[in-house]
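Retry 2 of 3 after timeout on previous attempt. Resubmitting structure tokens to design endpoint.
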């Protein structure tokens, strides 16, 4: 067998052993198939990988976190291969020469693979983003939020329900899943004497109470929906049959909430933009922060463990909001005693 023939056989059986079977994780299979196609397109032998080049290829298409995940999957598959005695035996079987030559061949192949997948040779540079553009996530202005609330109208069950959904999410910041889990009795609870919403199915097994405060007017809209729909107990929000005149049994689904919110686009920078449920949660955080609510209070209302998460929801503020405050002063009158032109020492 010639050297070229050996290389063809070698890369073929490495590819066969490397690729995961149908029982493997879906993400693993997908990432390895992307890797396989790239190797074939670049005419790179599977026994001589170069994850540095593959990283550069992925960087043009994915975010840093996704690139890291892809590379980690490829490394894991190669490392699993290197731990296999069957792999070493097969390498030995296609090697030529005496025992010493065969061992040297096996060692060389393994070393090349180890070098090719070495993390030090394919590190991913992760950029920490301080400020994200408004286009990445919507945080509605007061005017945009009010326009959104007015969009469904109040004529008919569907319009009433949709307005109630939007109002409660904007006024409490709850997630779509939490909204779907609400029962009528959850709408009016108390926290330190304050009228509050009881979120029974919060993320992370939390059940926070969210005071309505000055936004308790949203309950008038929800009450009108409940009255019109004849709902006195059980789930607050429910689906409607086609025609919008009869309730469906059971709770409103998360998918339905996404559809309801997205059905009423708002004007953002001169263009209509579709709103998502989590945009209303971000809007709650931003509007409450700008209204002066304490950051810790917003964190607790949203049910966040880490204040950094809350800051992410508030997002980067506008220039006016970020103007520095007068923390200290300087007597500028002292500058009057300084000459208009300060000459350098020794200058004539």
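Retry 2 succeeded. Sequence:
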């Amino acid at each position: 067998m010639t050297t070229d023939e050996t290389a063809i056989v070698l890369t073929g059986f490495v590819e066969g052993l490397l690729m995961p079977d149908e029982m493997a994780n879906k993400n693993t299979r997908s990432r390895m198939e992307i890797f396989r196609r790239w190797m074939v397109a670049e005419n790179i032998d599977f026994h001589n990988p170069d994850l540095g080049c593959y990283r550069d290829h992925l960087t043009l298409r994915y975010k840093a976190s996704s690139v890291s995940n892809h590379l980690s999957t490829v490394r894991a598959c190669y490392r699993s291969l290197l731990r296999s005695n069957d792999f070493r035996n097969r390498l030995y079987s296609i090697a030529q020469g005496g025992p010493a030559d065969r061992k040297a061949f096996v060692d060389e192949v393994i070393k090349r693979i180890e070098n090719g997948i070495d993390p030090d040779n394919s590190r991913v540079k992760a950029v920490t983003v301080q400020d994200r553009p408004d286009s990445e996530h919507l945080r509605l202005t007061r005017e945009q939020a009010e326009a959104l609330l007015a969009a469904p109208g109040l004529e008919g069950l569907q319009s009433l329900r949709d307005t109630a959904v939007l109002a409660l999410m904007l006024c409490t910041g709850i997630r779509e899943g939490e909204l779907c889990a609400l029962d009528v009795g959850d709408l009016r609870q108390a926290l330190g004497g304050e009228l509050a919403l009881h979120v029974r199915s919060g993320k992370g097994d939390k059940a926070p109470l969210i005071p309505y405060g000055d936004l308790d007017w949203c309950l008038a809209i929800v009450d009108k929906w409940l009255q019109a729909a004849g709902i006195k107990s059980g789930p607050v929000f429910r689906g409607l049959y086609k025609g919008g005149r009869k309730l469906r049994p059971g709770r409103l689904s998360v998918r339905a909430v996404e559809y309801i919110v997205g059905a009423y686009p708002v004007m953002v920078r001169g263009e209509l933009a579709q709103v998502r449920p989590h945009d209303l949660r971000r809007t709650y955080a931003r509007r409450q922060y700008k209204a002066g609510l304490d950051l810790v209070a917003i964190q607790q209302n949203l049910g966040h463990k880490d204040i950094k998460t809350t800051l992410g929801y508030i997002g980067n503020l506008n220039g006016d909001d970020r103007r520095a405050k007068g923390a200290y002063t300087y007597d500028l009158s002292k500058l009057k005693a300084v000459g208009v032109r300060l000459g350098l020492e020794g200058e004539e």
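Attempt log closed. The beta strands are 189-191, 194-198, 209-211, 266-268, 271-273.
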